[in-house]
C-alpha cells in the first residue's frame, strides 16, 4: 500500500511544538515578531503573505505587515528593511518575492540582517548551511526533511534525486541532504533543464524530490518500485471547473502512486511544511536575539 504523506498533519504537529516555545518566550517577556513586506500587486503573493500572517497569529507570533507601492523606487523598500533591522520587536523579516523588475532581488536579500533572515537566503546563512553549521535552514527544503523524518524515511546511504537547482529549493535541498547530520548522509543527484536523461536518473533513485515548476513532469514510468516521492511543485493549470483552474504538482500523482512506497499530494503535502518552518525560524530567531533558550528539534 502506498503511503500518502499528510503534510497538514505533520505541519500541525510542528506548530503545536512551536506553540510551547512561544509560551517559553512569553514567560521571559518576549513576544516573537515576524515582519512581512509585500511590494507587489500579484494576487498569489498577497495570498501567500496573508497565509503566513494567519499562521503566525494562530501560535502567538506577532505579525507586522508592510505594503510598499510597487511603483516606488527600491530605496523605499531598502529604507523599510533598515528600519525593521533596527526594530527589536521584529525578530524575523520576510520580503515576499518576486519584487518588481526595477528592484534588485539579491540586494534586497543582502540588506536583511542575517540574524533576522528567516528565509535563510542571505549569503551568510547560505554559507553556514553549506559549511554544515546552519542558522536558518530555508523553509521548503527543511520542511521536506521534516516530512521524510515523519514518514520514517531514513536518508542515510540513499540515492536521492532532486529535480531543480533553484536557490530557494533545489540547491539548499541538496546542501541539507549531503550533510553529515540527521536526515542527511544521502548521495544526491541534482537535475535541471539541461539534464540529458531525467528518467534514467529518477529510475535509479530511492527518493525523488521534484521542484521544477513543470506540471506533472515526473510520472510513474520514470520511477522504480518503492520510490519515495516528494512533490514540491505548485502550478495552476486550466481546468473545466468553477474556478477555471486547478493546482497540480510536478508529479503525475496517479501513475506515480502506483509505483511509490510513499508520496506527497499537491495540495496538502509540502506546502503546509513551508509555512510551519517559517514559524520555526521565527521562533528560533527570537530565541537567538533575546538569549531565551527555545531549543528546537
Ligand atoms: N510547496 C511549497 O511550499 C513551495 C515552495 C517553493 C516553491 N514551490 C514550487 O516549487 C516549484 C519550483 O520552485 P522554484 O522556485 O525552485 O522554481 P525555479 O526557480 O523556476 O527553478 C526551477 C528549476 O527546475 C529546473 N527545471 C525546469 N524545467 C525542467 C525540466 N523539464 N527538467 C528538469 N529540470 C527542470 C530548472 O532548471 P534550470 O536551472 O536549468 O533553469 C530550475 O533549476 C514551483 O512550482 C514552485 O511554485 C513550492
Query: What overall form do the CA principal axes indicate?
Result: globular
What level of helicity do the residues show? 40-55%
Number of strands: 11
> How much of the sequence is in beta strands?
15-25%
Rg, rounded, reads 19 Å
Class of secondary structure makeup: alpha/beta
Q: What summary fits the major beta sheet?
A: 6 strands, parallel
Strand arrangement within the widest β-sheet reads: 1-11-8-7-5-6
- Roughly what is the average pLDDT, rounded to an integer? 97
Detail the poorly predicted runs: none
Bound molecules: NADP nicotinamide-adenine-dinucleotide phosphate
Number of H- or I-type helical stretches: 10
- The SSE string, one letter per element, is EHEHEHEHHHEHEHEEEEHEH
Distance N terminus to C terminus? 30 Å
Amino acid at each position: 500500500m502506498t503511503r500518502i504523506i499528510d503534510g497538514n498533519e505533520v505541519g500541525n504537529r510542528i506548530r503545536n511544538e512551536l506553540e510551547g516555545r512561544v509560551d517559553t518566550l512569553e514567560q521571559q517577556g518576549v513576544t516573537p515578531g515576524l515582519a512581512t513586506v509585500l511590494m507587489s500587486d500579484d494576487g498569489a503573493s498577497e495570498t501567500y503573505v496573508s497565509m503566513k500572517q494567519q499562521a503566525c497569529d494562530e501560535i502567538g507570533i506577532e505579525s507586522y505587515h508592510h505594503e510598499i507601492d510597487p511603483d516606488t523606487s527600491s530605496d523605499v523598500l531598502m529604507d523599510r528593511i533598515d528600519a525593521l533591522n533596527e526594530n527589536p520587536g521584529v525578530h524575523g523579516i520576510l520580503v515576499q518575492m518576486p519584487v518588481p523588475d526595477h528592484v534588485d532581488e539579491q540586494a534586497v536579500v543582502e540588506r536583511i540582517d542575517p540574524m533576522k533572515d528567516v528565509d535563510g537566503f542571505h549569503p551568510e546563512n547560505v554559507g553556514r548551511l553549506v559549511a554544515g553549521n546552519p542558522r536558518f535552514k530555508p523553509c521548503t527544503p527543511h520542511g521536506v526533511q521534516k516530512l521524510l523524518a515523519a514518514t520514517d524515511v531514513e536518508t542515510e546511504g540513499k540515492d536521492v534525486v532532486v529535480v531543480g537547482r533553484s536557490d530557494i529549493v533545489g540547491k539548499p535541498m541538496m546542501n541539507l541532504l549531503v550533510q553529515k547530520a540527521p536526515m542527511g548522509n544521502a548521495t544526491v543527484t541534482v537535475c535541471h533543464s539541461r539534464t540529458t536523461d531525467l528518467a534514467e536518473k529518477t529510475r535509479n533513485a530511492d527518493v525523488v524530490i521534484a521542484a521544477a515548476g513543470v506540471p506533472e513532469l515526473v510520472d510513474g514510468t520514470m520511477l522504480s518500485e518503492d520510490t519515495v516521492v516528494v512533490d514540491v511543485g505548485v502550478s495552476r493549470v486550466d481546468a473545466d471547473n468553477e474556478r477555471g483552474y486547478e493546482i497540480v504538482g510536478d508529479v503525475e500523482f496517479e501513475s506515480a502512486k502506483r509505483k511509490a512506497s510513499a508520496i506527497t499530494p499537491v495540495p496538502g503535502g509540502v506546502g503546509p511544511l513551508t509555512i510551519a518552518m517559517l514559524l520555526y525560524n521565527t521562533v528560533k530567531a527570537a530565541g537567538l536575539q533575546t538569549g531565551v533558550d527555545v531549543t528546537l528539534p
